[in-house]
Design brief:
Blueprint lengths: L1 H24 L2 E6 L5 E4 L9 E4 L21 H37 L5 E4 L5 E4 L1 H18 L2
Antiparallel strand pairs: 1-2, 1-3, 4-5
Helix pairs in contact: 2-3
Length: 152
């Protein structure tokens, strides 16, 4: 008799636990808007109001995944902006290096042409020619103008 009573109490306890879990999973929430535009929420359905019914998941249940969570939407706007800025910075560094190389080349040419009165160069035909003084001073002035305009 004692074992039967214990089994019966255990069965009743299991029924109550299962009922409580079912009740926790089936909780509902109602929302409605009053005449002033205020949104109200309640666990009981309001009288005389058009209410929207929503199921509330139990505390131990994980909420269903958002349909947007599964989509691969790519980087966020902020991440895209950071990538753009990084690309612009990289391009600016490349441009700065090229500009520095060009300025160094012009400066080296000025240092070669300016102090020397006899400057020789090879023409398109492969012949060595001497640059006359007017051509040399014009070239030095041209290079110095380029340096002043483009180099810091």
């Amino acid at each position: 008799m004692k074992h039967v009573t214990i089994r019966l109490l255990f069965a009743v306890l299991v029924v109550f636990v299962l009922a409580a879990q079912g009740e926790a999973q089936e909780k509902k929430m109602y929302s409605w808007t009053d005449e002033n535009g205020t949104v109200h929420f309640s666990e009981s359905k309001p009288d005389g109001q058009q209410a929207t019914e929503q199921l509330i998941p139990a505390a131990d249940q994980k909420p269903s995944a958002s349909p947007y969570a599964t989509m691969d939407s790519g980087p966020s706007v902020a991440e895209q902006r950071r990538q753009e800025i990084a690309q612009k910075n990289d391009q600016a560094r490349v441009n700065q290096a090229a500009n520095s190389a060009q300025c160094a080349s012009w400066q080296a040419e000025v240092e070669r042409l300016e102090p020397n009165r006899r400057v020789f160069f090879t023409n398109e035909a492969g012949e060595t020619e001497r640059m006359d003084d007017v051509e040399r001073t014009n070239r030095v002035a041209e290079l110095k103008a380029l340096i002043a305009k483009n180099c810091k």
